[in-house]
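User: tokens in, sequence out, please.
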């Protein structure tokens, strides 16, 4: 038969009362009061322990809940990263294809720009003197034929295009150039 805590406490209290009666000369009423005080303290301690246990259970439940939410969040982020990695790989492969295509175009462009620069060099001797002096800064930027250059292809193309634009401007209409020539020495 299972006994309840109240009965155990009452039996224990009675046993303590009996022991206290045998050991002291106090009156039974004083012993009962002392026993009642002790019983009240024990009951208060039990109540405090129950409350503490209830708070700890709630704290553990809250911690478990937060941990479960964190696990769900991390799992969803991991799934997103897993599915995102295929997208990243796709973007990476597209970028690598674009880089390869750009390198191929740059090689073709480099070969063609050399042809245009050679054609510009052929035109220099037949240019009028005043136009040649006007184009001198552009012509200095042309790389020397047969020698490697450190200029990027974009600057080389800009030089050729600027040369052609100045040549077109010169050919668009008449030009008046004044010059001083010496006919006789000192005149």
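Assistant: Sequence out:
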């Amino acid at each position: 038969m299972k006994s309840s805590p109240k009965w155990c406490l009452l039996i224990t209290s009675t046993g303590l009362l009996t022991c206290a009666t045998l050991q002291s000369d106090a009156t039974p009423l004083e012993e009962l009061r002392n026993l009642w005080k002790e019983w009240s303290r024990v009951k208060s301690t039990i109540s405090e322990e129950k409350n503490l246990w209830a708070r700890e259970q709630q704290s553990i439940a809250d911690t478990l809940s937060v941990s479960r939410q964190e696990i769900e969040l991390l799992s969803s982020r991991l799934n997103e990263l897993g599915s995102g990695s295929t997208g990243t790989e796709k973007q990476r492969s597209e970028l690598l294809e674009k880089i390869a295509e750009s390198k191929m175009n740059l090689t073709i462009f480099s070969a063609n720009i050399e042809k245009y620069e050679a054609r510009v060099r052929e035109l220099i001797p037949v240019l009028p003197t005043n136009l040649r002096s006007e184009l001198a800064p552009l012509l200095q930027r042309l790389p020397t034929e047969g020698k490697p250059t450190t200029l990027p292809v974009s600057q080389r193309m800009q030089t050729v295009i600027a040369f052609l634009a100045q040549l077109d401007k010169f050919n668009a209409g008449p030009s008046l150039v004044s010059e001083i020539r010496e006919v006789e020495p000192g005149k």
